User: Fold this.
Amino acid sequence: MIDFKPILKDIEPSKEEEEKVHNLADKLMEIINIAAQKEKITAEAVLLGSVAKNTWISSVDNGDNDLDIDIFIKFPLTTSPDNLKSLGLKLAKDCIEEADGVYEERYASHPYLTGTIQGYQVDLVPCYDIQHSRELKSAVDRTLLHTQYVMGNLKTGQEKEVRLLKRFMQMVGTYGSEFKVGGFSGYLCELLVIYYGSFLEVLQGAWDEWKPGIQIDLLDYGTADMFNEPLVVVDPTDGNRNVSAALTLQKMSEFVIAAGNFLKKPEKSYFYPKVIEYNQKDILEEFSQRETTSLILSFPAPNIPSDALHPQIRKTEKSLVKILETADFSVLGSDSWSNEGDVDENIGNKEDQVKRKEVVILLEMNTWSLPLYKKRNGPAIWDKGNTSKFLKKHPQSWIEGDQWKTLSEREYQDVDSLIHGILKSDGIRRLRVGKHLKKEILKNYGLRDVIDVLNVEDADKGLLEFLHHYLNKGEFLLR
Amino acid sequence: MIDFKPILKDIEPSKEEEEKVHNLADKLMEIINIAAQKEKITAEAVLLGSVAKNTWISSVDNGDNDLDIDIFIKFPLTTSPDNLKSLGLKLAKDCIEEADGVYEERYASHPYLTGTIQGYQVDLVPCYDIQHSRELKSAVDRTLLHTQYVMGNLKTGQEKEVRLLKRFMQMVGTYGSEFKVGGFSGYLCELLVIYYGSFLEVLQGAWDEWKPGIQIDLLDYGTADMFNEPLVVVDPTDGNRNVSAALTLQKMSEFVIAAGNFLKKPEKSYFYPKVIEYNQKDILEEFSQRETTSLILSFPAPNIPSDALHPQIRKTEKSLVKILETADFSVLGSDSWSNEGDVDENIGNKEDQVKRKEVVILLEMNTWSLPLYKKRNGPAIWDKGNTSKFLKKHPQSWIEGDQWKTLSEREYQDVDSLIHGILKSDGIRRLRVGKHLKKEILKNYGLRDVIDVLNVEDADKGLLEFLHHYLNKGEFLLR
Assistant:
């Protein structure tokens, strides 16, 4: 096996960083607690999340930065929701202002503040001080129970294992429980380490044992059969919850394959961003050589949260593919992409960001032009009423077996005109598309052949990466 | 309703013709009976079939000639099959020779002679003298029982109704129980008239009552549920037999629709060949306008009986379509045709006929050229053994859900090369084709675009008719 020490050196925070982060957290909690006392608010700040659990990953290189200082402001269960919200947000705002940070208000299941102080992202979240999931008033309250469970059950030394697992997941592309990814959450990684013991044992367990329907029930609740997601990990703090409910079969499969690849041939590179060698010319050549016709549909992304945007994009892509296939245009493959990134987290020059946001849907076609007619089924010849209506409309029909058949003219003979037809105001009801996307599409969209896009010098880098990845699916799973 | 008298005048034999046919039949039977007596063979000639039943159609115009003098030579049940064959055929041969006819030997369920005497087709068939279907030794023996039943149950005057029905069936294209047609036999027409009463009542009954599963059981055998063909007519001479077993759903449907068309707007023209107006230029234009690609595969017909040839042609056509569709070449329609006609019945200049016999399969394609790759399913990722084999072969695979997918190069990117590939000796095992056709195809076949065929001046008339009918299916059902 490879030596994990140099990897851990890169991803574990240094003593100095750890101190700096904890000092900042302590200071913020102190500000909040003093203010609460002063204003006679029964509330107490507490440090939760990966900083409290000591499982966060230091920001080496340009990988995803896991660091997020989560300070929760606990209120007694007797507090009214209105008071919790107004008093909690007031304490949070005053705190960030006193600490010279910038902030914005956000909504998860209830409002909280996210801010940047001394270069760190800090979330200040009002919550109820619950002891058990039965007392749960909003989803954010769980964080308290999750942090307590992990702190009480992760053995000393296992933090390293969690860090290796999270980092591995990030680098093979299976980390993150948000809709855009559909992968593993940090809490899920921690539970897997508690269950299997170590990074390597998690990988071995996944490779050897996982199949859709596998169940992990740390506290033997016996409730695992309630869930039908591909992986079931019963929440130790709530037997009625599957921690991996958001994990897609796709990401579960990808993790298992990456785990197997690593175990067969362990490489340090699994813990670092894969250097993707691509260039516009090669991508152009690959698309040309496939002899398909690939279309790029693009339109401005609506200004909605990432977790709302991505399911809508995916739904639109799937719906488009279905419409094309139904019209006999055979689709070889499709994918979608947005350069919106985590824009909301880059507080500051927001206007600039918004302007650049774009959604791209790629449609690779096996068939893109069709003859004039298509064969259509009519009623059975025994169905006299419908037969007579059908024949009035289609006098040129004939019988096959005991069913009427006819040739009807296609509405669209080529895929471009079909897509243009769908994306007009009188065609778009055929598309399953969220109202935000619909509005943007009706305002403005582009439809280009990928060859034309790639023939323009210096195509957008993000788009090239997307196209490269479309042509090289699964490339992150193997080093 | 239209006046049927002038129609009957055209299709009923004249008194003179009737006399001539019966005189010929009597003479032939006499020859046989005298010879049998002389040679001490216990056998007796008897007139059966449509001449005996007086339901044959006179040869007006160029419609199908129904006239076929069926003389059966009955042997006692105690005769051995070998004796029946040798003695029966001897009596038959001697008879035709004595009557100055020409003949050839044929096989149905056992051998018989078919000959031409004084311009009439005569079948001389040795059979057993059975009284009941229980005694049946070969299928030809049934003819005796069928003729007796019809003669005993068709009322005077109903012969006219049978003749109208047969003629109507011929002219709308649903008459003939041989494989090539899959339609109604003469005996079935007679039973329908016995059951419903008249030509018009048969049409009305079919239009009002028929649906797949309809049962007609003249003698209340109660055995109709034994059969699952679309139309069940229990044989009055054998409760265990469905008279319309050979009727296809297609021909049953066509008859019902033609019946409905006639009843809604009765026209004399339903009893005469439809004058089909077509010309090469219009057919060419129609094919061009459809923007499909239509291929004509042609090869010499093997010299086998029509009833053996046509199922083989149809099977080959269906198999070809399936292979094309499986390879993602979408087929809009297909049809097959052979100019072999009823060659065997034109005794005489046989060599000439054989040379002209050809099989044609038409394939009209929605898609005739495809990109280089096709997406292929691999094993589920959980299936480790097959995964590792699959990835060795297809290293560029990716995961969708929990299944491996890969792009594999198509063996054939265009429909022509696929067909050429199949029709070679190392490809033809993929085709479900009878050995007789296979032999011919491997020797020689042509594959041409219908446009090229139609651009040649004066294309074959039979082929043009076939193409016209392909473009105008069901045209005979409505006048």
